[in-house]
Design goal:
This protein is an alpha+beta fold and 152 residues long. It has six helices and five strands, in the order E-E-H-E-E-E-H-H-H-H-H. The protein binds FE2/S2 (inorganic) cluster.
C-alpha cells in the first residue's frame, strides 16, 4: 500500500494518501467527507475554511496536507452536533447568528479559539478575534451577541 500522511481528525487517527501539497480543506471535504469547513476565497482571506490545528484556528485552504502531518485537527463536526452542540454552537443557535450561514463555521471556530485563550473577552476583544472572518450578510451584531453569550 502507498504510504499516506497520518493526522488526527476529531480525535481519530486518519491516514490520507495522495498529493501531500493539496490543501487540508480539500482533504477534509473530499477525502474525509467533513464538509463543515467551507470554501470561500481559497486565499486565506475570508475564514470560512477555518479549523482548529492543535487548538489554534487556522485557515485550512492555506495549510497543506503535509503541514498537517502528525497534527490534531478539529473540525466543526468534532465540536458537537444538533443533539449535543458545543456551548459556542448552542450560543450561535440561541442568538440566530446566521443569515446565509456560510461564514458560521469560521465564526464558531474563531470563537472557540478565542474563548480557549480568553474565557471572558471584552466586546472589543471579541470583535478583534473575529475581524478576519468575513460575513457578507451583515450578521455581525448577532454573531457578537453569540460570542458574549458563550463566554464566561
Ligand atoms: Fe480559506 Fe477563505 S476559503 S480563508
Amino acid at each position: 500500500a502507498a504510504a499516506g500522511i497520518a493526522l488526527a481528525v476529531n480525535g481519530q487517527k486518519r491516514t490520507v494518501a495522495g498529493d501531500p501539497n493539496r490543501p487540508l480543506l480539500y482533504v477534509l471535504r473530499n477525502d474525509l467527507g467533513l464538509t463543515g469547513a467551507k470554501f470561500g476565497c481559497g486565499k486565506g482571506q475570508c475564514g470560512a475554511c477555518s479549523v482548529l490545528m492543535n487548538n489554534e484556528a487556522v485557515r485550512s485552504c492555506q495549510v497543506t496536507l503535509a503541514q498537517a502531518a502528525g497534527k490534531s485537527i478539529t473540525t466543526l463536526e468534532g465540536l458537537g452536533d444538533i443533539k449535543t452542540p458545543h456551548p459556542v454552537q448552542a450560543a450561535f443557535i440561541a442568538e440566530q447568528a446566521a443569515q446565509c450561514g456560510y461564514c458560521a463555521n469560521g465564526m464558531v471556530m474563531a470563537t472557540v479559539a478565542l474563548l480557549a485563550r480568553t474565557p471572558e473577552p471584552s466586546l472589543d476583544e471579541a470583535k478583534q478575534a473575529l475581524a478576519g472572518n468575513l460575513c457578507r450578510c451583515g450578521t455581525h451584531r448577532r454573531i457578537l451577541r453569540a460570542v458574549m453569550r458563550a463566554s464566561g
